[in-house]
């Protein structure tokens, strides 16, 4: 087959999904391949060689397929090339039709020189979401100055360049900068079109000829944000990422809250630059490619030998097996061995979800469940993921929580909920929280269930990231009702000390009175007296509270955190941490 021969001889430089049914591949030789899919099957293949021989150089270093143009960086020259597609039917409702074939009359080529000299390096290129600014970047070079060579200028030392991209003048250099570290990854923000996000390795300052010494060094990686404003590119921030091994690959979630890195020690790390929170998980192989599902709920990790492993957004593994395989202990392993099902000459090079940000027709209502697998030297494969009838084949975070609860994997469900963003998906977070809480309240209370209930409520009352006042105001009252249900659940199982701590957190007089009567019936005289005293204190405070004072209080969560030795009043404005130790006033002998 012609496509197979092309994939064996020419590496794929760029992949672009025009829709869920149309995928385009740009090869290093300039050949443009369009695949028309029907489900996971290829219905039509169009191969276009119009660009072959029309570019300023023969070898493409990197490429991007845009809506109206193609972008290239060239291996032999320090240049960026734009091929503008001057089509009259760009607004066609079927973009697959008018992108299958190009003609010489439809293309317009423009070239711009990059700063940094004519060194032969692999330059990478990226396009922002509004498709009006281009970023070009490459690795840092050795800054050693020789006596016979001139001192390079700041422009010549730059390794990150921004270019304006338009139809009439073509490409124009806007600004350039030299990064502090060696870029591992560089891309535009999806939410801020003029922000550039980078991951930089700060290990090049320590030179050593010993490979053992280099492996022993702890990698220093920073997550950096650059902004183009007032005609210049400048660095806004940098967050260090504590790693134990050298990073190989990385990707970001669709909401740009998390950074996922694949490390050389067969592990992946999920890092939140804003809070500094990180999570780790072990892989069954060295991760070389990563792909985040468009919903943010699933992570795909691929190995160089064709292994594929799936995690949810809480970094709990999800087993993979083929639909036609009978579930046996041997068929469900930590990873899916693609080499057992696909004949390949070399390793896995890229995994990509079939996702187009701009939906055409009704495809936006469908699940994004198709995964493109690209092997070095071919072939191409498509893998469709299904969670079964229970979730209706949906792969969103809320669906994953329900799937985990259906499988009695409560800790995994809590991990997903803990990494969901209340600011962006508050309703889905709330539904997931009450689903987990209802599931646990129906179970007999033991030490594990009690800890899971505390963790579930703590996701709202003691989050890693502070919640906004809008989110607190919207969900504080309904979630507090579940906290009260947890209190009475503790009472029914005679967990009086924990119930007392929870009542202090909630700060409601009726809960202390309920605890007082139940403790008195069970002969817990000291606890009953302390509960009655707390109820009277709350009643007295409510009567003496000045009119209008409560309205002037800052918006806060209803529960508060304290050390085990403190019993604080309901007016305290700290946030909740559900505790497991007993306050001093309830300890025996006091």
UniProtKB/TrEMBL annotation:
Major subcellular site: membrane
Query: What is the superkingdom listed in this entry's lineage?
Result: Eukaryota
Quote the subcellular location field of this record.
Cell membrane; Cytoplasm, Cytoskeleton, Cilium axoneme
GO CC annotations?
Answer: axonemal basal plate; plasma membrane
Q: Which GO terms describe its biological process?
A: cilium organization; establishment of protein localization; nervous system development
Give the UniProt keywords, A-Z: Cell membrane, Cell projection, Cilium, Cilium biogenesis/degradation, Cytoplasm, Cytoskeleton, Membrane, Repeat, WD repeat
InterPro entries assigned: Frtz
Which Pfam families does the record associate with it?
Frtz
**Family note:** Belongs to the WD repeat fritz family.
> What name goes with this protein?
WD repeat-containing and planar cell polarity effector protein fritz homolog isoform X3
Whose protein is this, by species? Cyprinus carpio
Q: Give the classification, highest ranks.
A: Eukaryota, Metazoa, Chordata, Craniata, Vertebrata
Name of the gene encoding the protein in the UniProt record:
LOC122148155
